[in-house]
Amino acid sequence: MAVLASVRITIFLNTFDSRTIKHIKAAPMVRLIVMGVSIILILITLNLVIGVVRGTIIHDVIYFFRKDVDIHA
After folding, report:
1. Mean pLDDT, residues 53-57 taken together
2. Which residue ranges traverse the bilayer (predicted)?
3. Which member of 17, 23, 47, 51 lies 3.0 to 4.6 Å from 41 by CB, making a disulfide possible if both were Cys?
4. Using CA atoms in the order 9, 12, 15, 19, what is the torsion angle rounded to 10 degrees?
5. Structural domain boundaries of the chain?
6. Which class for 25: exposed (0-12), middle (13-18), buried (19 or more C-beta within 10 A)?
7. How far apart are alpha carbons 58 and 39 in whole angstroms?
8. Contact 45, 51 (CB under 8 A)
9. CA–CA separation, 61 vs 40, rounded Å?
């Protein structure tokens, strides 16, 4: 298990980009909420597919009902 944990940490450190933090800070609040809900669903269900699919559905519902949708975002 320790080897698996070290491999995962190494992959995380090699793929992490510091520009991601700047992008998250500049993102609209709605996107951050959808991302947070998706992450919570993934952690609760321990199933990546459920979190991603439900997060996509939530995003699509919000996108459909918003009046001031930014098409270029």
Report:
1. 93
2. 32-57
3. 51
4. -130
5. 20-73
6. exposed
7. 13
8. yes
9. 18
Judge whether 24 and 32 are in contact, CB under 8 Å.
Answer: yes
Q: pTM for this structure?
A: 0.62
Rounded distance, CA 42 to CA 72, Å?
A: 28
Nearest to 59 by CA among 38, 73, 39: 38
Percent of the chain with pLDDT over 70: 90
Structure-block tokens of residue 4: 């698996």
Which tokens is 67 given?
A: 């009046």
Reported as a single tens digit per residue, the pLDDT across 30-51 is 888 999 999 999 999 999 899 9
